[in-house]
Structures are given as C-alpha cells and as structure tokens.
Design a protein that fits this description.
Helix 1 runs antiparallel to helix 13, helix 8 runs parallel beside helix 10 and helix 12 runs antiparallel to helix 13. By secondary structure, this protein is mainly alpha-helical. The protein is 51% helix and 9% strand.
Amino acid sequence: MKRITSIITCLVACMQLASAQTTPRALARIIQRDTSLVAVARMARQVLGEGFNAGSGYSQVWARDLNTFIETALEVNRPADVRGALLVFFAMQQPNGECIDGYVVKKDFTWGDNHPYYSTLDDIHVGFKNTVETDQETSLIQAVCKYIRKTGDRSLLQEMVGGVTVLDRMQQMLDYLKRERYSEQYGLIYGAMTADWGDCQPLCDDVVDIHPDSPMAIDVYDNAMLMIALDDLQTVCTDAQRCQAWKQWHDDIAKNVRRHLWDKKRKKFVPHIYLGESPIPAGFDELEVYYHGGTAVAIEAGLLTTREIAQANAKMLENVERSGMPTIGLTLYPVYPDGFFHGGMAKPYVYQNGGDWTWFGGRMIQQLVHYGFCEEAYNELRPMLDRVIQNHGFYEWYGMGNVPSGSGKFKGSAGVLATAIEMLQDWSKKILDNEKE
C-alpha cells in the first residue's frame, strides 16, 4: 500500500509540473507535498546509520565515499565515532604525506565508547590506495571541513596524530600533491588516465595501480576537487598566512583549468591532457566525450558561469536521450570503445564507462539547486527517487534499461540524495515562508 501511495504521489507531482503553473511558489508547493522526498530521505538516514563503510559488499571505509555522506552521517551517528573514522586516515598517512584510499575494519568491530578516537590501530586490518586516482587527499580534507562546519568542533584541527596535528597533516597532503602529482607546465595536478572521476585505468588488467606504462593525464575532476579542498580549508582555519597561500593556489588552478581544460568551441571540458603518448585508439575522438561527473564537481568548484551551467545541464539531458540511459547520473558520453578498459568495464555502459551513478548525478542536482535551477533539479531528481523506491535501496550504479548493479546499499548514493533532497526542501520552505510574509 505504501508503495502504491508513493507512486500515485509521484504521478501527481509529474502532472503538476507538466502544467503551465511552474512558478517558484507552485514548484515549492509540489516539493513540500511530495512524500517520496521524505521517504527517500528517511531511507538514506537509515542506511547511513549502519556504519561508515562504502556500502553492502564493501568492508572498507573510503575517503572519497565518506566525503559524500559525512554530513547526513553526522545526523544519525555519534560525532565522536565520525571523528574517529576520520582520524584513522591521518594515523595511516604515508611518510611522503599522501593519504590512503581507505581501510578495512575487522568484522567484529563495533563503533562504540571503546574506540572513539582510534588511539591504536588494533581494529584495522589494512590500509590501501588505488594509486591511479588523485582525489584521496582532497576528499579527506573536504570531509574534515564538513565535519567541522557541521559540528563546530574545531579542536579536530589540533588533534595530535603521531605527534603531528591534523591541520599540519592536511598541509602535508597538499604538499604531496604539489610535489609528486603536479605539472609545472600546466600548473595543474595529474593522475593516471581514467574514465572521468573513476579509478580504473585502460589497456591493462591491473586497473587500479600506476605502473611504468600507465598513461598520465590531467583532468578537470581532480583539479576541481583540489579547488574545493583549498576553499574549504579557508572556512575552518584562522591562520591568515596559510589561508592566503591556499587562496593563491586555488585561484591559480581556476585560471589554469579555464586556460588548458575548457574547450570554448564545444563548451565543455577537455577529457584529458596527456603528459606523454595518448592511449586513445585511432578512430576514436576523445575530445567529443562529455564527462558528467567531472563537470558537476567543476560546477561545485565555481568553474562555470550560470549560463554555462545551464548549457551543461542541457547537454547532459541530451546525452541521456542519445545514450538511452536513465538519468544525468550517466558517467560520460559517448562511451569508450569495447575492450579499451578491461575487466568489469570492458563493455560500454558498464560501471564507470557510461554506467549511471546517482553518486555523481546527485551532486549535479545539488548544484542546480545551489545556482537557482530548482525546477530542473526537481525534474531530474525524480527518476533517481523513483528507482530508489522501486528497488528498495540505493544501488551503486545502473546499467542500460535502468538495471540496478553493484552494492545495494551504496552510501555515497544515499548521502548525495539526502543532501539534494534537503536543499530542495529548504528552498521550497523559504519560498513559502516568504509568501506568508
């Protein structure tokens, strides 16, 4: 009965949006009456109360995942436990300053009073890193800043881990990026070539670790993540000298992204600038590939104007229609050729090679709300909500035909949807409250 009621509510909302009455007040009323928003938000909180691992099927706590659900997780978990989960990353920081991707927690481990700050690592099996990516350090920094803004607990910055404060350890992570993943020629950071924000490289079976033949490349996602991290640090740290240095680097990256990665003719970001020989096979024009996830994160970093955001959203919708995939969570379009990537993403529209990921589509929804495209945000969020309700969970990604795949309780998806829903609800409430005045 609940499912039927939810479906009826969705149909009514769609019919209302199809009418001519799409004024802000009309849209706000529709959003406030949409019970599926409430239902999905409740489901998300339930999933995020089940620990900090990436989801069902994942025993690991990942920095890049935790960053996208930490705010909602703080509403349904003890802040001390979230704080402890963050501190593990600093306890396992490498001698060169780099951050691990994540760590595996013992199966019998419980998040409780005996382990609030991880004074020892007895309950952790191992740390790991998919070295092809360059978003681990920036993801952790963003997560720490979100924790501080949400809780007001600035003491975390001065927490000593191995004799070094968390603030200094975050600076060490930035120093690592500047020292070991930075191109002087372009003034941007780099990693191995992957599909948009993904962590799998092509043309080999060892997809997650850099090796001598790995094609190194610059992309917008990694640099936008660094921009956000540098911006976030300035909101929680009062050290004027450090803030000035972070701001200068942030502004330099913004300038260099627009100079080297923005394709004015196509009105899109260049997928990659290769620091060596391009791995792209003859006959495939990678410049035509549109990266949905990287573009969404670039918007969050402030790299596009309002007009360009509207153009980006229109292009994403066009790509969805052309590809036949379900939502703007579509990773990229057109997809890379069959066999270019190996293993589980060798085929087009599978996993990171054109799969549909709410984990990143939800971030685009958030930015649409942030920049005032609330009607577009609501319309494009609806199919993401519908499949959560239909499939009774937050799947990791969806294949052609909206087939749910991967983890059935993927916390990154739950986190970004919960935040997008909250943003829409806050906007609609503000509109209606102003109407009363």
